[in-house]
């Protein structure tokens, strides 16, 4: 199983996961408030989303100026296992090793996902999910299917997929449940294709479902309760 994402066709699936997350998040936002609009959802972006994106952007662009940072922070399973360089599990998800074009694409995807998850989950749940998603992705690509490299794609896809895990738990509308099913299928297709990013998608869905069970966003929890009582028909 590969984590390189070198096949352009795979990127079509990555973009599809992010697009589904974006559309479903904006739909849930519009459904939760009579005054919500697409413009208010996407702009101006939440402070937490801006901070997350800025931190990753600075870290991703820094190796273009200081090339030595890439070797210091990228994923190197042998050095993590044998030399105790555990920081690589996290830092490999904050920098890019694919050049300028891949860096720009990943930052664009992250910008969309960061806004979507912060709007839906709230800032501390969203940041926590992004970090946990990256740690699990880093551990998977270090120990289960070891591979050298760096990039934000795994963490971004895992974060996007948390929304697909959220919708079924909170009793969302049929369209959001379809979005969850589509995300799951995309994850499975990626796994079948031998792409480790499919695992990131499926793990992200699991994280979202678990967090939604134990600590759901307050506004969605209220919506779910109202629906159960017949106040909202989905």
Determine the oligomeric state from the structure.
single chain
What gap, in angstroms, lies between the N and C termini? 39 Å
The largest sheet, given as strand count, sense and whether it forms a barrel, is: none
Gyration radius, rounded: 18 Å
Low-pLDDT residue spans: 224-234
Q: How many H/I helical runs?
A: 12
- Approximate strand percentage: under 5%
Percent of residues in helices comes to over 70%
Question: What is the arithmetic mean of pLDDT?
Answer: 86
Globular, elongated, flat, extended or rod-shaped: what is the shape? globular
Structural class: mainly alpha
Order of helices and strands: HHHHHHHHHHHH
Tally of strands: 0
What does this structure look like?
The structure is a single chain. The protein is mostly helical. Helices cover 75% and strands 0% of the residues. Helix 1 (8-32) runs parallel beside helix 7 (99-121), helix 8 (123-144) packs across helix 11 and helix 9 runs antiparallel to helix 10 (174-192). The longest helix has 25 residues, at 8-32. It starts with 7 loop residues before the first helix and ends in a 6-residue tail after the last helix.
In short:
This protein has 234 residues and is an all-alpha fold. The chain has 12 helices and no strands.
């Amino acid at each position: 199983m590969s984590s390189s994402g070198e096949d352009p066709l795979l990127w079509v699936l990555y973009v599809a996961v992010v697009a589904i997350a974006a559309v479903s998040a904006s739909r849930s936002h519009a459904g939760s408030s009579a005054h919500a609009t697409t413009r208010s959802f996407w702009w101006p972006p939440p402070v937490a989303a801006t901070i997350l994106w800025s931190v990753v952007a600075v870290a991703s662009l820094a190796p273009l100026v200081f090339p030595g940072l890439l070797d210091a922070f990228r994923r190197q399973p042998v050095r993590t296992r044998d030399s105790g360089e555990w920081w690589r599990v996290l830092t490999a998800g904050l920098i890019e090793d694919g050049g300028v074009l891949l860096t720009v694409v990943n930052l664009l995807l992250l910008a969309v996902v960061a806004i979507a998850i912060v709007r839906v989950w709230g800032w501390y749940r969203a940041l926590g999910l992004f970090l946990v998603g990256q740690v699990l992705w880093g551990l998977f690509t270090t120990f289960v299917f070891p591979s050298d490299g760096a990039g934000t794609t795994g963490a971004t896809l895992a974060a996007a997929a948390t929304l697909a895990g959220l919708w079924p738990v909170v009793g969302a509308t049929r369209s959001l449940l379809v979005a969850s099913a589509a995300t799951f299928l995309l994850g499975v297709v990626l796994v079948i294709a031998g792409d480790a990013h499919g695992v990131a998608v499926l793990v992200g869905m699991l994280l979202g479902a678990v967090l939604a069970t134990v600590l759901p966003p307050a506004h969605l929890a209220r919506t779910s309760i109202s629906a159960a009582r017949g106040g909202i028909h989905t």
